[in-house]
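quick one, 55 residues, struct below
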Amino acid sequence: MDKPSLGLAPLAVRDIFSIIRDLKSEGTTILIIEQNANTALRCAEQAYVLVMFRY
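---
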């Protein structure tokens, strides 16, 4: 999923991540690209953080 919370109201974000957690509990593997790191990390088993430096 590419930025599933982008532009959504906080209640909608909560609902989206609730669905993601439900899918995870069913054994579905999900790759999420998300700028809201705190929310994504709460439902993740593994995480990779990419940092972009500008010089």
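The mean pLDDT is 93.
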